[in-house]
Design brief:
Elements (H helix, E strand, L loop, with lengths): L1 H30 L2 H41 L17 H17 L4 H13 L3 H16 L6
């Protein structure tokens, strides 16, 4: 729950920032000179790009949470069986062992979104965030019946 509150607070701060940057862009365009109009238009692009990224990130998180709830209802969420260091961090060898099992499960059932979800969790535990995100995107696409890129 804490993570959701932090995410919402940061998203709200970003939206305020987008509004402030956008207003500066409008002010530059209103100046009317060639240079200020060019800079103003360039500045106006930034809030749109930022808003698009914020939307995509929020949509991804909501979709992943939707799959997690569904998998939890089925009793298929991966169990936390990872060894931890005294400081609480995940032991790398333990994460690699679980990852190998999840990868084998996914290779046996490449069209099952559940196996891709569990593989995404294993990637995350192994601190490979880019691959975790790609695996989760694949799980979401398979679940929703959308085409999956190779």
């Amino acid at each position: 729950m804490r993570a959701k509150i932090v995410y919402c607070a940061l998203a709200a701060v970003l939206v305020v920032y987008f509004v402030l940057v956008g207003s500066r862009g409008v002010m530059l365009v209103e100046q009317g000179t060639a240079i200020t109009v060019a800079f103003g238009l360039a500045v106006l692009v930034l809030p749109f790009i930022g808003a698009w990224f914020l939307y995509q990130t929020t949509k991804f998180a909501r979709d992943a949470n939707r799959l997690a709830r569904e998998l939890e209802a089925e009793g298929g969420l991966p169990v936390d069986e990872l060894a931890r260091t005294p400081g609480g961090r995940i032991d790398r060898d333990s994460a690699d062992e679980v990852f190998a099992r999840r990868r084998a499960e996914t290779e046996r059932a490449p069209e099952d979104w559940r196996s891709w979800f569990r593989l995404a969790v294993a990637y995350h535990d192994a601190r490979d965030t880019p691959r975790a995100r790609k695996a989760m995107q694949r799980a979401i696409a398979l679940h929703d019946g959308r085409p999956v890129r190779a």
